Amino acid sequence: MPLDLAMPSKAALTEKLPAQWRKPLLHLALACAAVLLLFAPVFADMAMQFWDSSSYNHILFVPVIIAWLVAQRSGELAKLTPKAWWPGLVALAGALFLWLLGDIAGIALATHLAVVAMLQSLVLTMLGPRVSWALAFPFAYGFFLIPFGDELVPTLQMVTADLTIALTQWSGVPAVIEGVFIDTPAGLFEVAEACSGVKFLIAMIALGTLAAHVCFVSWKRRALFMLAAMALPILANGVRAWGTIYIAQSQGIEFAAGFDHIFYGWIFFALVMGLLLALSWRFFDRPRDGAFIDAEAIAAARWPEALERMAIAPGRALVGVAALCLVAIGWSVQARSVEAELPQQIALPEIPGWQRAPFTEGLWWEPRAGGADHRLIGSYTNADGAQVEMFYALYSAQEEGREAGGFGEGALMPGSDWRWHSPGPDFDAGFSQRLQAPGPEQRVTLTLYRHRSLATGSVARLKLSNIRDRLTFDAEPTMLLILSAREGGAVPAEQAIREFIASTAPTGEWMDRIAQKP
């Protein structure tokens, strides 16, 4: 008997899609593929952070969560009809401009935010305002794809240190705190960057946002739950740090460190997450079978009607996406080619009232200025016995890999024996901090950036000034000055730096002269 082989006329997946969704989803897939290809280096950088940094490992689950959130709405979404919408291209242009600013200034956070916003604007462009409204929460949850939170580390270090010393003294352990260092009978403890609790905090914010949406309907309950989700990890991290110090008093530092890594690192915070959900369980008010959206209400809404009159042919929308992306990339390539002219050689300056001197005894200190075209380091002393180390770096341009204010650049070199201690004294200009090394040995440092007429300690202001150069294709050199003085000398560190600044005032113009800037 001959076999009757029937070939399917359509793919099973395509058959499951409502007819009005098939072409819009294809157009969306093509647009997203183009963005992923054109901006692949940015997406690759984000993925590397997700995989390599423990602070961002939780982001690996975010795409899965977004897909699940969309799947929960799929039945209702099938009742809507997507329509391409040209104002979405305006949103895309804004995202591309943000990427351009971040790319030419070397601001990774800006480029990461921009590429996520690009994908969101493509949804708006290809599916229209009504469907985008139905996807509002998954749409917004996409912002958790952005690796952020390192900016909170210094603040969280200080908060954790304050909580830890309070609990340590309350528990009867004699302790003294100085900055982020806590001295106890068992030894000296540092609330290091890894102990700040930032990775647990940002993971809890992501989890809390998801749980607040999925488990609650009342906005008041959602707000209270989010407050708990943000406060609990901060308090728990203080308890974690205190527990390590308390155990060390009887069991020793090595045992406490191992216990901290195994128990607190893998179990304690999992228990805190479970505790938050368990305490909130009885207050969950979303029905088990409750829909996340009401497609019929969205379809009947009158307010999107005026917006939907601004429809565009999907093919034209795709052309618009490609054109905008290519313009932004072309602008970036041209902007990156502009660099300031620099002298072939620069030298340490002569300073009235100060003489060159050997470096102070103790642990070697040297800032980091990766990618700088010129670097100078020297030590000066005056008649009062004040001694100051001066570090100066000169850049022809600012971009990824050569940023005066980049992560890991400046007075505190990663991997060295120096540690951040606390914010430094308040000088009239610049950014000050205290550093500490084993011994203990302390330094006060003052960092000042110079670009055009700007002299500041603000990395944000420096980057904004550099962005102007790149956007207008008119480059000026960027300068970095770091002054440092060691505590324990003939003159206190803060006073030594103030005397040095007084001898170079106005310091911005003095920095220009070192760069031989006319």
TrEMBL record:
Transmembrane regions: 54-71, 83-101, 107-124, 131-149, 198-217, 224-243, 263-284, 317-333
Gene Ontology molecular function, alphabetical: peptidase activity
Keywords on record: Cell membrane, Hydrolase, Membrane, Protease, Transmembrane, Transmembrane helix
Listed InterPro entries: EpsH-like, Exo/Archaeosortase_dom, Exosortase, Exosortase-1, Methanolan_biosynth_EpsI
Superkingdom assignment: Bacteria
Primary location class: membrane
EC number: 3.4.22.-
GO cellular component: plasma membrane
NCBIfam families associated with the record: 8TM_EpsH, EpsI_fam, exo_archaeo, exosort_XrtA
Name of the protein: Exosortase A
